[in-house]
Every structure is written in C-alpha cells, then in structure tokens.
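Lab notebook, page 48
Experiment: co-folding of the full assembly
Goal: obtain a model of how the components sit together before planning crosslinking
Operator: M.T.
Materials (sequences as entered):
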Amino acid sequence: MDAVERARQDYARGSLDVDDVAADPLRQLERWIADAVAEDVGEPNAMTLATVDADGRPDARVVLLRRVTDTSLVWFTDRRSTKGAQLAATPHAALVFHWQPLERQVRLRGPVVALDDAASDAYFASRPRGSQLSAWASHQSQPVASREAYERQVEAIEARFDGVEDVPRPPDWGGYALTPVEVELWQGRRSRRHDRLRFRVDGAGGWTVERLQP
Ligand SMILES: Cc1cc2nc3c(=O)[nH]c(=O)nc-3n(C[C@H](O)[C@H](O)[C@H](O)COP(=O)(O)O)c2cc1C
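Observation: model returned without errors.
Model output:
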C-alpha cells in the first residue's frame, strides 16, 4: 500500500467562480457532463448513490444517470434491491460525480421519488433486448447459489420471451428522481487550495450560493 500513501496529484486544470457558473446548479451539472463527454471520460454519467438503511447507517453504490430534468436527476434500477428498500423507508439520498481527468466533483442531496409507470415504461422500451431480459432474470441484491444457477435463470427468461417482440417492463423495475436541495461544485486547485461553491434552495424557488473553504 506504499503506492497509495505516496499517490499525490496537484490539480491545475481549472478554477471556479460564482460569475462563471449557471445560476441553476443543475444547468451547470449539464455543462460539466458535456465537458466530461468531450474529454472522453469513461462513463461520464456514472454517479455514486448514497442511501441510509433502517438503522440510519449509510450505504453507497454506483448507478448511471439517465436524465436531467428541470429539477431532478433520474436513474433506473430494480426497486426490490437493497437501495430500493432503503429508499422506500427513507426517501432521501446523496449523489456524487467525480470526473478525474477534469479534477471536478459534484455532490447533490435531496428527496427521492419513484418515477411513474409511464416514464419507467418509456425508458425500459429504449433499452437493448439483452438488458431487458436481464432485468427479468435477476432479483437484484438477493443471494444466488452460483454463477451457473444465475445463468439458468437467464436461460429460463430467454425461453419465456422467445418470439415476444416487445419485452414488457418488470413490475418492480423502474426509475427514481432526486430533486436536489443542496449542490456542491468542486474544482481542484494547486496545493489543495480548491474552489468549492455550495448552492442551496432558497424559499423563493431560486438558489443561494456560497464559497466554502477547501
Ligand atoms: C459503472 C456502474 C454503473 C452501474 N449502473 C447501475 C444502474 O444504473 N442501476 C443499477 O441498478 N445498478 C447499477 N450498477 C450496479 C450497482 O452499483 C449495484 O451493484 C446494484 O445496483 C445493487 O445495489 P444495491 O444492492 O445497493 O441495491 C452499476 C455499477 C457500476 C460500477
């Protein structure tokens, strides 16, 4: 682990000032995702989703952002999964993006709602057939005896939908939308003197922004 202790990078790609960013941090998030796409960052829409369990203990995993609306960020999953159960009990979450080559991080926090059936159906219909069948074949986050046992589940689903042109959405598979009430934009700077701007919703539906110490 010596390499981990020694790993040290100075950040010099950019800077961040209130005057440079959109007044709505979701619009700025879209700009930064576009920058990550232009930079060829792998999976620029990958984000860490943090939830809490029934004891208030945090949990986290990576999911893919699929849509940014006027007010929310949307991802899709099996609602029977661990994260689905956690969100049902505590419908609040945090999201984190990190685009390493751009030396940028975005953190968001807010309440989460399940998308309605029509929106989940529309996205499910756009997925490749293989992914659609995989959604049917897996009860996400449940144990399975072996890789072979899982592959037999996949084969059974392939047989079930053989000849069916449009695979329907599994009833428990769908989207969630997080509406941020707090967003932080972070840009790495030299000697750990980073730029941080924190946006919080104000009472009037707008955002207030403050600079935070690094
Ligand atoms: C890059 C990446 C993208 C992922 N995207 C998703 C996704 O969009 N939806 C999803 O359910 N799981 C996704 N996963 C898998 C999750 O990280 C996780 O293993 C799974 O959702 C089960 O989490 P849970 O047991 O906490 O519910 C992704 C994993 C990685 C590494």
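Interpretation: The first strand starts at residue 46 and ends at 52.
Next step: discuss with group before ordering constructs.
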